[in-house]
Each structure stands twice: as C-alpha cells, then as structure tokens.
Amino acid sequence: MRIAAxxxxxxxxxxxxxxxxxxxxxxxxxxxxxxELTSGVHAVCGLNKPEDMLRLGDSDWxxxxxxxxxxxxxxxxFAVRMSDEAFRALTPEFSRPxxxxxxxxxxxxxxKLFSAxxxxxxxxxxxxxxLYAVNHxxxxxxxxxxxxxxxxxxxxxxxxxxxxxxxxxxxxxxxLPDGGIVVTIPHLPSSSDSEGAVLRWGPGGGWSEVPGTxxxxxxxILVSPDGTRLYVNExxxxxxxxxxxxxxATPPRSVDLGFHPDNIRFAPxxxxxxxxxxxxxxxxxxxxxxxxxxxxxxxxRVDPTTFQATTLFKRGANETxxxxxxxxxxxxxxxxxxxxxxxxxxVPLSELRxxxx
Length: 357
What we know:
This protein has 2 helices and 24 strands. The protein is mainly beta. The protein is globular.
C-alpha cells in the first residue's frame, strides 16, 4: 500500500507539473499566426528581443533595442517604420573618438558585442537626438549616439560612453535637464536582499546614488517634464514610485499595480504607461531564462495627478508574443516590446479597456 501511495503521489506530481508546464509552454518566439495578420491585435516578427522602444520625435520611425542572445552577443538596435511596419537593423558608425563630455570613456564598444537594453532619447533639434543605450555586451556601460533622422530613416554615430561602477549592471535610463542621466540598478552588489537603487551621472562628475530610491528591484525610470521628480518601477513589489529630485518639496508617492512593472513611458496625454508581468517572479525567471515557456503581459495607465492606476491591456503568452516590457503610443496603436520574443506586439487603441489621449 505504501508503494502504491508513493506511486500515486509521484503520478499526481507529474500530472500537476505537466499541467503547469503545458499552461506556460507558449514561448512567444515570434512564430505564431499573429505574425501573418495586418490588422487588429497582431505582431511584427523578426526583431530580436525589442525590450525597449521610443518614437523618434514626430517622424515615421520608432527605434527599438535588441538585447541580443542569452550571452548578449548579436544585439544592437532596430529602426521600425510606422507607416508599413517595415524594419531594419541599424549599423552605427563606431569609428569616431568619444566627445569631450565623455572624456573618461575608454573607447567605442566592440560592435559584435554591443547589446541594447533600456534606451532613452534627448531631443536636440529638428530631426536630431541623442540616444542613450544600456549596454551589457563586453562591458557594463551607457553608450551614447548622435541620431539624425531623414526620409530614409535614422542614422547613428557613436559619440561616447559612461562606464558603470564596478560590479554594477543597469537596466533602464532617462536623461536629466542638466545634461546628466539617471539609471536603475536592479540589484546592488553590496545588497543581499535584492535591493537596488537609482544612480545619477553628470558631465564632469562621477556616479552618485539618488536618495529615496533603494527599492526591491529598481527597473523602469522616467524624469518628470519639469525635472523635479523621478518615476521609478519597483519590480519585486509591483509598484511605481514618484521620488522628489534635488530637494523638491513634493512628497514621495507610490501606487501598487498588481503586477511586476518593467518599463514605463509617457503617453501623449502626460500619463504614465507601465508594462510588466502578472506572473510570479519565479515563473518569470523560469520562463524567461531557463525553459523558455510563456510570460504574460499587462499594461496599466498611471494618472500623474491622482497617482492611481488602471489596467489598459492584459493577455496571456502564446507562440507569437511573451513577456511584454515596454509600451508606447504610436499613432492610434499601442506598441509593446519584449525581453524574450522575436517580435513586438501591436494593439489598436480601440482594443484597450479604457481610452488614452
């Protein structure tokens, strides 16, 4: 009887594990039916892990990162044309010396190793931007590019870098009005309990920690339009925080999203779009980096005045798309990037649970 009971228990464990695995199996690698659709909710397939995206001003182009393979090799950047969803890999010019602003930069990265995780843009003029990209390939750094946009698309020229402090790995980045940058560090090397922080860098200075940003898994980040506040995602505790910057008088605020927020972006109406994963952290780690099963996606809107959140879009993983990370409004659509898929997801704004301006 004892042997039979053990056998039954083993069988039940196997069935439960198989059922869980079957539920999570869709790996979202960009091979599903939605890649063949051109209207409604559909995907643009062939982009490798477009974890973060931004529209280049009011042009017809969106720039997307490429995190590369599991060892960060084979990454880079993509340009995606809004009008027809055509895309191409970008090949930056890496031959120029670094600009004086980045005098401590040791030189250009190896193009074969360069990967783009979080990205940020600083508009400079008509069709001109500065692009910042978190790079893990070959070194932990912020790579800086001059971007010029023409009718043929964007052209990138590397202009310098800022190397992260030793043993620090960044996730997301945002520009500051003074010419500096802030980056999130999900896990500080000195922390034993998944505590992260936001680090700040300015031209002519080194790195410093922003007070009030020691969170459990600092992830996405934005700077308020007036430069007085940071918006920081706390991935592990499912929150978005508003943190005063440079002694601003406004008190800090937080909102619980009910899912683990990855990146955040401003919508045209000034609200904040947070994108992330309603699964447990264990499932995200398992399916994102081990067995390649599916990670669900959720997008919420945070009202910057009330700091209340409402869900706009939620869906389970399938063979086309998994693990949404960043959502931006592109015309009358919401474009969603991913940290695991070879695809980006496109959702008509009419399909959202609530309208966004």
